Amino acid sequence: MTDRLVIYENRPGLSSDNPHNAMDQVNRFFPTMPALLRGVSRSFYLSIRLLPGRLRQPVAVGYLLARASDTLADTADLPPDERRDMLESWTEGIEGHNTGSAAAARLAASFGPLQRDTQERALIEALPQCLSWLEELPSADRADIRAVLRHITYGQALDIERFDRRSPLRALDSAAQLDEYTYLVAGSVGEFWTDLCFRHVRDFARLPRPEMRELGRAYGKGLQLVNILRDAGSDLAAGRCYFPAEELAQAGLRPQDILAKPERFEPVWQRWHAQAGRDLDLGMQYADAVNGRRVRAASALPALLGARTLDLLRAAGPGRLRQPVKMARHEVRSILARLAFTLAGRAPLQRSYRRLRGGEPATGWDNPRP
User: Fold this and answer.
1) 41 CB-side CA count, 13 A
2) Do domains 19-167 and 168-370 have the same CATH topology?
């Protein structure tokens, strides 16, 4: 079987055409990229490692550019106007403007020292290199990356505007604003992933491209909702509330009241928890439609991790706002092991997903109890 799964670290010296050498091609062309990816995203790095080489490079470059813009937008030591200006400069660099390289060098020099996390600092210091990697990709991949980054950076700019840290704790106005945000920063990524796969993978899916794009869009939005649900407490501490003010008002709450009255906030939280679950269900429909096992595994993995996170958050109750909830590393390893053991077969993937979502008794070795 040539369509094998690649999950664990690879041995050196293998041919880049060998499916067991998952990151070899990225290592050869972009030798410092895997270290950056591991440092700023353990979970997405796992999905990238599963991809064939022709997909791995544009997905990895696109992720690092988006992750860098997120870091620039969230640098808390700078006022909103300055972060907005820096994000605009970075966006111009991504678009390939003549001043892009110089702007990236300035951003690396000015923003790098402000990063408290060493991995975030390494990423910001590598901004010029990230733009070089973008320019080395085929033109069609560059165009797709630039298109999705326009959506992402616009969503990040809206975040800066809506959650101006010189203002008190604020919430998004409406569910429509939350839907817009999740599309811009994540739903668009599902469309991007789909477009790349249809271009680079022969017989990618058994559903037509428009339907896969629609599923991918919902899948990305669901994954972003998982992040919002998981990070609700830390976001409140940072002055951000993604839960709509109109829904909070119906529960008799202001954003400032949530931590003091978590039981009144719970119905609002549960509504978006249910929405995230429905979106992940669509994500598993997406993965089920993918023909190749490796790309199917890479497509399904975020839904599996997201499903387990949703179940852990549900079990934690209102205390999740004060005590961070995340998967243990051994649980992630168990999910990866099952993916490899079952070769990402459609039926085993769906069974794993149902267990991880809490829909079946948690007796499987891939779904330890919290």
Assistant:
1) 24
2) yes
Place of tokens 């706002």: 321
Enter the pTM of the model: 0.89
The SS3 of residue 11 is coil
CB 182 within 8 A of CB 224: yes
- Tell me the two tokens of residue 218: 């919902």
pLDDT tens, the chain, 370 aa long? 334 454 433 333 222 334 445 455 555 555 678 889 999 987 889 999 999 988 999 999 999 999 999 999 988 778 899 999 999 999 999 998 867 788 899 999 988 888 888 999 999 999 999 999 999 999 999 999 999 999 999 999 999 999 976 668 999 999 999 999 999 999 999 999 999 999 999 999 999 999 999 999 999 999 999 999 999 999 999 999 999 999 999 999 999 999 999 999 999 999 999 999 999 999 999 999 999 999 999 999 999 999 999 999 999 999 999 999 999 999 999 999 999 999 999 999 999 999 999 876 544 444 444 3
| Residue 84 phi, psi (nearest 5) | -65, -45
Write the CATH number of the domain with boundaries 19-167.
1.10.600.10
In CATH, what is the architecture of 168-370?
Answer: Orthogonal Bundle (1.10)
Q: Who's near 85: CB < 8 A, 6+ residues apart?
A: none
Break the chain into its structural domains and give their ranges. Answer: 19-167, 168-370
